[in-house]
TrEMBL record:
Residues 1-18 form the signal peptide. The chain crosses the membrane at residues 69-88, 100-118, 138-155, 176-198, 236-255. Residues 65-255 form the ABC transmembrane type-1 domain. Pfam families: BPD_transp_1 (PF00528). InterPro entries: MetI-like, MetI-like_sf. Keywords: Cell membrane, Membrane, Signal, Transmembrane, Transmembrane helix, Transport. Belongs to the binding-protein-dependent transport system permease family. This is Sn-glycerol-3-phosphate transport system permease protein UgpE. It comes from the Bacteria. It is found in: Cell membrane. It is a multi-pass membrane protein.
């Protein structure tokens, strides 16, 4: 009975969390007449699959998708490279003030992005990067304190004897990182990659601040174009929301076992 109660509770919670997604899908498939019925109609009488193609072609979403893929891909590569190098330095190199410097890096996690938003805008404006994709890509190549912490904790669990054996064989520090450490960092690197993909794909405030030209818009900014001064195109919003939610859901579905493994093996042993 106890197990039955737990499973029933989990099913109820799952339905509660899945309800908004189900509502978005059914709203995207409704006709205009059924959109604002009260009480609401959960299941449409006739499925309007043409709503998806119509919503995609109203705005240049092919261009928005291209911009989003470029930003997500380059920013994710930047995070993986920069955070791996910094985490390796904190985990394996002995130098004066290492712990203090690591605390300073962690302290940056307590500063909300809203505090640095205006200084960053002024800096990017001085560099001439406003209305380009560079403000959305370049900062990722300087690392993230949270990801650096995750990778450092995992590297600390790896025995130093591996480094010593590689050194005896003639490997330098970079060779040890590339040939010994990185191949063993599969789960945490996948974890960092998935989190970064989610952050970039769903980012709205960053593109809203730094981009002005519609040709530079990402998917989230393109989605906001359906909300006008005199009304909201709810069908198109829900249709595009369902479409742009597919890639992150697919990434999370295929990488979830690596995510769990990466979290479980980071800083616990």
């Amino acid at each position: 009975m106890k197990k039955l109660f737990i499973y029933a509770l989990l099913i109820c919670c799952s339905l509660l969390f899945a309800a908004p997604l189900f509502w978005a899908v059914t709203t995207a498939l409704k006709s205009q007449a059924e959109l604002y019925l009260f009480p609401p109609k959960w299941i449409p009488s006739a499925l309007q699959f043409s709503n998806f193609s119509d919503a995609w072609t109203i705005q240049p979403f092919n261009l928005f998708l291209k911009n989003t893929v470029i930003v997500t891909l380059l920013a994710t590569i930047g995070q993986l490279v920069s955070c791996t190098l910094v985490a390796y330095g904190f985990a394996r190199f002995e130098f004066k003030g290492r712990n203090l410097l690591f605390l300073v890096v962690l302290a940056t996690m307590m500063i909300p992005w809203e505090v640095t938003m205006i200084p960053q805008y002024m800096e990017f404006n001085y560099l001439g990067w406003i209305n380009t994709l560079k403000p959305l890509i370049v900062p990722s190549w300087f690392g993230s304190a949270y990801f650096i912490f995750l990778l450092r904790q995992f590297i600390l669990t790896l025995p130093r004897e591996l480094d010593e054996a590689a050194t005896i064989d003639g490997a330098n520090k970079f060779g040890i990182l590339a040939r010994i450490i990185v191949p063993l960092m599969g789960p945490p690197l996948i974890l960092v990659g998935v989190f970064q993909v989610m952050n970039c794909w769903n980012d709205y405030l960053g593109p809203l601040i730094f981009l002005n030209d519609q040709s530079k818009y990402t998917l989230t900014l393109g989605l906001s174009q359906f909300k006008g001064m005199f009304g909201v195109d709810m069908q198109s919003i829900m249709a595009i929301t369902c479409l742009i939610s597919i890639p992150p859901l697919a990434v999370f579905f295929f990488a979830q076992r690596y995510i769990v493994g990466g979290i479980a093996n980071t800083g616990i042993k």
